[in-house]
């Protein structure tokens, strides 16, 4: 499986919600970008408690979902931006049903491993509400992401390296074939898993410790 990287995006912490800082706004970078254990360089996360770290080093939100959102909320300019959902990597033809926990991908000279589905937060609705000029229009986006598993996913960095737009994202090893990102998101974030599901997820070493703990908490 090979996909072309259409953009690689980074952001810096800036005022986002009043005085609160966020690096949610990601912009495409030109030229080569370093991919380090903590993520792209430079790329920031203002809220280090809930974002960033080795298990959430690089985020990919499928560009394929932008058309879905155009139908839901309208064809706003923000949806033309590859980093509209806080994504670092812009890939058109790769979605949550095609990617598994533990899949390994070569991107440029770096080696990445899929670590978890992304759990969406309020910042998505805040950014799109501002772009729409009407916060009420964006209400429900997070719930829709959870309901449909259009969540995107995170990578950890196994081998540091560098990449740039136009490089190939190539899967070089398949992880847990029973657990796609979509299935994991439905179980972990939508609560649509069985006790067996949560036991399996808790035992997957490639799944981030935070999400393994979430799976254990759902066990009776």
From TrEMBL:
Annotated TM spans: none
Molecular functions (GO terms): catalytic activity; molybdenum ion binding; pyridoxal phosphate binding
Pfam families the UniProt entry points to: MOSC (PF03473)
SUPFAM superfamilies: PK beta-barrel domain-like
Entry superkingdom: Bacteria
InterPro entries, A to Z: Benzoxazolinone_Detox_Enz, MoCF_Sase_C, Pyrv_Knase-like_insert_dom_sf
Span of domain MOSC: 27-172
Annotated PANTHER family: PROTEIN YIIM
Protein known as: MOSC domain-containing protein
Organism expressing this protein natively: Erythrobacter longus
């Amino acid at each position: 499986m090979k996909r072309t990287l259409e953009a690689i995006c980074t952001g810096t912490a800036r005022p986002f919600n009043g005085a609160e800082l966020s690096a949610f706004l990601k912009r495409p970078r030109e030229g080569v970008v370093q991919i380090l254990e903590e993520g792209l360089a430079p790329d920031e996360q203002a809220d280090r408690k809930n974002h960033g770290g080795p298990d959430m080093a690089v985020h990919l939100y499928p560009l394929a979902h932008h058309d879905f959102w155009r139908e839901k909320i309208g064809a706003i300019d923000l949806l033309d931006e590859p980093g509209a959902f806080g994504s670092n990597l812009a890939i058109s033809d790769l979605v949550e049903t095609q990617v598994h926990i533990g899949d390994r991908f070569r991107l440029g000279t770096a080696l990445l491993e899929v670590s978890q589905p992304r759990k969406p937060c309020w910042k998505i609705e805040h950014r799109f509400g501002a772009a729409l000029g009407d916060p009420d229009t964006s209400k429900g986006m997070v719930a829709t992401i959870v309901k449909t598993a259009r969540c995107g996913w995170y990578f950890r960095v196994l081998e540091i390296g560098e990449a740039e737009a136009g490089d190939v994202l190539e899967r070089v090893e398949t992880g847990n074939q029973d657990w796609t990102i979509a299935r994991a998101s439905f179980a972990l974030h939508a609560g649509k898993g069985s006790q067996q599901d949560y036991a399996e997820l808790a035992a997957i070493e490639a799944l981030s410790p935070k999400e393994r703990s979430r799976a254990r908490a759902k066990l009776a």
